[in-house]
Amino acid sequence: MRDTGGMATPAKTARTAPKTAPKTATKTGAKTAAKTGAKALRDTVEVTAARLRERGERVTPARLAVVEVLAATDEHLSAEQIGERAEGLRPGIHRATVYRALEALGEFGLVTHVHLGRAGTTYHLSGDLVPRHIHLRCSECGTVLDAPGNTLDPVRRKLQRDLGFRLAPEQVALLGTCAACAEA
């Protein structure tokens, strides 16, 4: 799920898809939407490359492929899934190289991971490359939803004020029951 002004929304739509696309797109409209999505993807990759260079880090094909894979989806992907997709973008990239790229991009604050319990660990872009959000996982069906990042801000402030504790929920998924399972 994605942040849409306080409501959780489906997370399986591409980040690069236009949010206000008409329901019946013309061929010209579809081409424009594709160009807009491609431009957003290209911009994310270029921003990431610039940030790596600013830090004095190497801009490698594997690092760029990982960013390209993550920028092109709202899915919650495992390292293995990212490796498969990165290899599709740049044939010959070894899976171990992708894992090292994920680790390095995480150290640089460009990628973060989320522990989903039995569902494993997934990765996504972080910082200002993607809107701040938290993860919710349905304990019945395993669906992962994204909720607005400010959802827990009152709890963060209270814990900081009362206990001096700084809550960082972005790397875990809160468990509960999704609407579909609650209705079933």
Compile the SSE list and pairings.
Layout: H1 27-54, H2 61-71, H3 79-89, H4 95-107, E1 111-115, E2 121-125, E3 133-138, E4 144-148, H5 153-163, E5 173-176, H6 179-183
Helix pairs in contact: 1-2, 2-3, 2-4, 3-4
Task: List the main descriptive attributes of the protein structure presented here.
184 residues; disordered N terminus; 6 helices; two-stranded antiparallel sheet; alpha+beta
Report on this model:
The chain is of the alpha+beta class and 184 residues long. 43% of the residues lie in helices and 14% in strands. The protein has 6 helices and 5 strands. The chain has helices at 27-54, 61-71, 79-89, 95-107, 153-163, 179-183; strands spanning 111-115, 121-125, 133-138, 144-148, 173-176. A 3-stranded mixed β-sheet has the order 4-3-5, with no helix packed on it. Strands 1-2 form a two-stranded antiparallel ribbon. A hairpin with a 5-residue loop joins strand 1 and strand 2. Helix 1 packs across helix 2, helix 2 (61-71) crosses helix 3 (79-89) and helix 3 crosses helix 4 (95-107). The longest helix has 28 residues, at 27-54. It is globular, with a radius of gyration of 18 Å. The model is unreliable at 1-35 (pLDDT under 50).
